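BUG: 3D viewer hangs when loading the predicted structure for this chain

Environment: internal workstation, default settings.
Expected: structure renders.
Actual: progress bar stalls at 90%.

Input used:
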Amino acid sequence: MTHPPLIRPATRADIPHLADWNVAMAQETEAKTLDRNVLARGVEAVFDDPRRGFYLVAERDGAAIGCLLVTYEWSDWRCGDFWWIQSVYVVPQARRGGAFRSLYAAVRERAREAGAVGLRLYVETENHRAQRTYAELGMTPCHYLMYEEALARAE
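Structure tokens produced before the viewer hung:
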């Protein structure tokens, strides 16, 4: 078995990887083509304002192999933040090698240290492999459905 990847906070130098991986993830999971320029600005905005969240990067043998974004949702019911895991991507050649598991463990540890009240993520209804992975990590489906309404388009 390969050694676990190193997990580190992303830096601005990672923005090209983060943007490219988000483009790939949207195409793979939803067959959506994202505007890379808008996406790169969106990724950079996380670094500009840490209240938006943070990225973690997984590395193996000095090469970045995956990432995720954490954003925050205040819960008045629980008087604390939920940490939302978003924009998860692992390069194809590193999949099933523990990269997401290591990223998730790092998020869980940081969330506990920060006093977060829970971790959440959403997953495509047909992405059964990811759903199994999340269940293996101790996550359970919740009773909420997600609705959305697009209000503005970034230019």
